[in-house]
Structures are given as structure tokens and as C-alpha cells.
Automatic annotation (TrEMBL):
The keyword Transmembrane helix is assigned to this record: yes
Keywords: Membrane, Transmembrane, Transmembrane helix
Top-level taxon in the UniProt lineage: Bacteria
Organism: Actinoallomurus oryzae
Name of the molecule in the record: DUF2207 domain-containing protein
Transmembrane intervals: 25-44
Length: 57
């Protein structure tokens, strides 16, 4: 959970820096990509956890 929150903070910081600073639009794109990767990563972890609980029953 801490990794998820840390990556969310990094994504937000990169997004804000890319949006505010002129000429650093690529940081906004990187922030969005980090955010999406974080959502995919957490979704995979939750999916594995649920699947394992069902298989154990």
C-alpha cells in the first residue's frame, strides 16, 4: 500500500510540474503514465489476491 501511495504522489508531482513549467510537457505525460502503471499494478495485485482466496476455498 505504501508503494501505491508513493507512486501516486510521484505521478501527481510530475503532472503538476509538467503542467506549470513551460516547456516541460513531457513531465505531464510521464506523470500520467506512472499513474496508469500504478493503477494496473495495484489491479493485478488485488486480482491475484482475490483469485488465491477463491482457490483456497
Amino acid at each position: 500500500m505504501a508503494l501505491f501511495l508513493a507512486l501516486i504522489l510521484v505521478a501527481v508531482a510530475l503532472g503538476i510540474a509538467g503542467w506549470v513549467v513551460k516547456g516541460l510537457f513531457f513531465l505531464l505525460i510521464i506523470g500520467i503514465l506512472v499513474f496508469l502503471a500504478d493503477l494496473v499494478f495495484s489491479g493485478i495485485r488485488i486480482g491475484r489476491r482475490r483469485g488465491g482466496a477463491r482457490a483456497a476455498r
